[in-house]
Amino acid sequence: MIKKIFITAGGTGGHIFPAQSVGNLLAQDKNCEVTLLTDDRGKALKGFDSNIKVIQLPLCRSRKGLIKKLIFFASLILSCGIAFFILLRHRPKVVVGFGGFPSLPGLLSAVVLKRIIGCKTIIHEQNAYLGKVNRKLQKFLDKIIISFPKVEQLTENRKSKFIGPLVRHGFTNIGKKNYTAPTKTGPINILVTGGSQGAYIFSACVPGACQLLPKEITKRIHITHQCRPQDVEETVNAYDNLGIKNNVVPFINDMQKEMEKAHFLICRAGASTISETIQAHRPAILVPYPYATDDHQRYNAKILVDNKAGWMILNKELTAENLSKTVKDLVLSDKVLEDAEKNLKVLSMDNAAQKFAEIIKNI
């Protein structure tokens, strides 16, 4: 008998990538029929199995200003109504939410229709702080899947199941290879990324931090830096003036390749980035985005810091001087990066997506 499964997720990578990793596994099972409920961003992202049917909900994102807030709430109500009738018509056996406000219509409809259509409800929390939608609905759900052993604001602990970070397969493969910290004379490969949209503060700070390093370190640095398109030329010039080999791009198409080359990262602490660094066993200097909802990036970064697997510099404290000191401490030590890599192994877990898929199929 075919098991109908609906997955619902927001259009950002932190929600969509976990949905892809699990959804694609389910779609390969001839006994499963998978449908994705998402917004325009989720529909535009590539990587879903061709067997997965995608339904776009008419959700708006902008909530600044009274008129735009009214439009947003109207689109949310409309999307809830559409999701309600879609679920009523298709009667899925399981509805799985991967977070973000676009997951609300599908999850809320599933909760309301639970007894009528007999479906089970599952959520995935990829951050170390339970998201707003997941937080509001947790007591009505059947199962809560978490990526970290400890998640703030999770009150339904008896429903929770820790499976480890959900990432695309290639990042786990990186972690299975031997990691070698920079030698005293060899290249120092640094990956700088502020998420898919870049981060101006890194373009402003990282070249300045490199300038403050001893010349014997600076001349060995190779930097791959993902930054905003409008900052590319200025950032390239800054590195060139310092004689630093660099690859500055507005978007990294093959993040797995760049992460495998890197000795360590300078990055934000979004769910996807944290999960990928854990599974790839790549130490990171983390600068949490200060305006993230509920300050969840700081909680994500704290997971690595508490396990001696990364270093955190708060956005307000990020200066060329502070960053330079941290980088210098890492590259001059014989053990600090290798110890961090070993500690990342403790946080990583194999086959998280497969475990999640089996939970969905067997619930």
Task: List the main descriptive attributes of the protein structure presented here.
single chain; alpha/beta; Rossmann fold; six-stranded parallel β-sheet; 2 domains; seven-stranded parallel β-sheet; about 375 residues; 15 helices
Q: How far apart, in Å, are the first and last alpha carbons?
A: 15 Å
Strand order of the largest sheet: 3-2-1-4-5-6-7
Strand percent estimate: 15-25%
The gross shape turns out to be globular
Order of helices and strands: EHEHEHEHEHEEHEHHEHEHEHEHEHHH
The assigned structural class equals alpha/beta
The counted number of beta strands is 13
Class of the largest domain, according to the CATH hierarchy?
Alpha Beta
Question: What do the pLDDT scores average to?
Answer: 92
CATH fold-level assignment of the largest domain: Rossmann fold
Largest sheet: 7 strands, parallel
From the alpha carbons, calculate the radius of gyration and give it in angstroms.
Answer: 21 Å
Number of domains: 2
Helix share, percent: 40-55%
The appropriate CATH architecture of the largest domain is 3-Layer(aba) Sandwich
The parts where pLDDT drops under 50 for at least 5 residues are none
How does this structure look, described?
- By secondary structure, the chain is an alpha/beta fold.
- It has two domains: 3-164 and 349-362, 3-Layer(aba) Sandwich (Rossmann fold); 172-347, Rossmann fold, CATH 3.40.50.2000.
- 45% of the residues lie in helices and 17% in strands.
- Helix 2 links the parallel strand 2 and strand 3.
- The mean pLDDT is 92.
